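Two folds, back to back.
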Amino acid sequence: MLRYTLGRLVSAVPVLLVVSLVSFAIIALVPGDMASEMAGPSATAEELARLRTQLGLDKPIVERMLDWYAALLLRGDLGESVLLRQSVTAAILERLPVTLSLTFLALMVAILLGVLAGMIAAVRPNTWSDQGVMATALVGLSLPDFWLGLVFIWIFAVQLGWLPTGGYVPFAEDPLGWLRAMAMPAGCLALTQMGLLARITRASMLDVLRQDFVRTARAKGLPGWVVVAKHAGANVLVPVLTVAGVTTGILLGGAVVIEQVFSLPGVGRLIIGAIQRRDYPVIQGGLLLTASIFVAVNLVVDLLYAAVDPRVRYDRR
């Protein structure tokens, strides 16, 4: 297991390097430049040239990329945001708790409700409960989360007045206020992925319930909930973990839009603002952070396989 873990950590390095390389290439192909955005339309050619030299934009993209890699690998420095006038690392760390708390809450809601709904549908196949769960899952998969966010704001904030329309309250300051601020954003993100998890859980559970060991457990006289929760449920966790790993990446991407809708000061909103203002260091740092989180989550999911299912072994000779 140790060799496998080290191997996965080493294999993650090329992935992160490719992500940063792609971000550089995309930025280089985008029309316009950061100097023009900062200087404004009234700037002269001399002022633009001086600003480009100051920002290092007059260098070839390969040289700028090598400088960025050297700073990152040698000092752990992601550069400095030109418009925010602070280091990219500080800007990201300041907003990271918002994005992580939103993603984590949405993931927990999606897993708990999605797995529970899928198990209920599988235990009672072709009944009204099964059809109702699958119909709800289909609706959840079909609705865009930003549209759901606007609908949730209109219903729960404007009409009912139960929740705030936006903003963020740190958990350490006011846990209840944090939950009220995160309820609608997390619900929007969770609903689409909850439908996917429900469908995966139902399909996996139906397959497991037909296995011989389940029939044997029932023949022994075990209660139905024990057979479903203990015997069948444990065998469903592996595909659920696989989907949960992919879901985390989808939720991180969805958080970019949801943070805009609900005015949450997270990393997603920071990246959107950096794209609009062509703040290249922030864009590169944000993309690298998102890729790092996604790689870390998938590594944890792979390591959990062996703990959940003894048939899965990653020990290497």
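---
second:
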Amino acid sequence: MARLAATVEGANEYINTFLVDTEDWIDADDKKKMRLLNRASSTLTRVFPKYVIPDKAVYEFVNVLAIAYNDTNRLNKHGISSFSITGVGSFNYKDTLRVEDEDLIPKESISAIEEENDVKFGGKRIRRTVL
């Protein structure tokens, strides 16, 4: 039931108009933006299979993924806790970001899906449970 009409052009317009931390999205080349958009769309469709996914939800989430997969955070996501570049700087992570993409879905995306489908999921995050 998910509607996948989100585009890179639409994401560029939305992110540049409504979001604050935009540098990682802006700095990505078009191929990476497309991969991030595909990942955001597929993750939201998998987590919310019975619901229409509005473009706004995808655009909010794709910007979060751009930050999570930037050059520095990508290393953290792979479990690296610190690194240094001689003469440039040293980076230490308080905690590693070893989480699944669905754990990064922002509240704004969830709210957009709730509004589009006239439902209320309750709680801040959607989690899958195995019984």
